[in-house]
Amino acid sequence: MVAVNSPTGPDPGFQDNVTPIVVTYNSAHCISDLADCLSGYPHVIVSDNASGDATVQRVRDLLPQAEVLTHDRNLGFGAANNRALARVNTHFALLLNPDCAIRPEDVSRLVEAAQSFPEASILGPQIRDGKGRPEVNYRWAANRWKSKGPAAEGPACVGFLSGAVMLLRMDVCAPLGFFDEAFFLYYEDDDLCLKMFDAKRPLIIVPAASAVHLARRSVKGKSPLRGEFWRGYHHAQSKLTYRAKHLGSKEAARLWRQLMIETTLALPLRIALFSPRMIARLFGRWRGVASWKPQIEANARQPRV
């Protein structure tokens, strides 16, 4: 393991080599904080999934240097990232959720680590919640072996890094391809990381770098319950798609039966406890399981959210 020296301040030239990419969908409330994080980067791409709020205008007002890609429909997380990644001309791309914040000095640490590990494909910081508590945003590939042991104290190879914040080395990742657009939302980062892992392109967690993630605050729609429904729906669909892709149709069918039984039994309990948010999410999960079909053409049958 090679130690990464933590700089007292960011290398003043590193931002020229990094293109932050943010996928937005009704994320106007996040743009002010994003602008604070990204104002010093000359290359920023915002890929907007047909927001119905003031997201695009807020980006243009607060991040005037940003290239804004406006899509006529919600393409999904992976597909919208792919459109932006195709336009990157810098050595690195920094994928950043709208509800995440990362300081320049922490991005500088990721870049410095990338220079120490030239074969690395993706590097990630330690993600923390709004109270500063560390999240479990890295592990081994879940379908290969179970993670165990204490948290990393220095840079370490892993099998998965959360897509909420990740630094991609473009010359390593681009030849292998980016996100599989069969995943509309959820599990696209699992799939991308497994691709790099199988290609023996290291994924590295850099604990000296940190980012803050205010989970599930990236979207504010007019109907929160509708949003919870689609979260449940897409999580179920993507979980089954991932299982079919990486473990085969028999394992996917086994998981389908398990999820159908568990979700059907859980719905009456949620209704009895009367938690509207959880009822909406669980009903969405049930619908996602019930309507799942293998080998769905990328995005063709995905409902707009």
Description:
The chain has 305 residues and is an alpha/beta fold. 38% of the residues lie in helices and 17% in strands. It has two domains: 14-213, Spore Coat Polysaccharide Biosynthesis Protein SpsA, Chain A (Alpha-Beta Complex), CATH 3.90.550.10; 224-290, no CATH class. The chain has nine helices and eleven strands. Strands 1, 2, 3, 4, 5, 6, 8, 10 and 11 form a nine-stranded mixed sheet that branches. Strands 7-9 form a two-stranded antiparallel ribbon. α7 (224-247) runs antiparallel to α8 (249-273) and α7 runs parallel beside α9 (276-290). It is globular. The relative contact order is 0.14. The model is unreliable at 1-9 and 296-305 (pLDDT under 50).
Structural class: alpha/beta
Number of domains: 2
Output the CATH topology of the largest domain.
Answer: Spore Coat Polysaccharide Biosynthesis Protein SpsA, Chain A
Mean pLDDT, all residues:
90
Broad CATH class of the largest domain: Alpha Beta
**Quaternary structure classification:** single chain
Q: What is the distance, rounded to the nearest whole angstrom, between the alpha carbons of the first and last residues?
A: 44 Å
Strand content: 15-25%
Low-confidence stretches: 1-9, 296-305
Rg, alpha carbons: 19 Å
Which geometry do the CA atoms define? globular
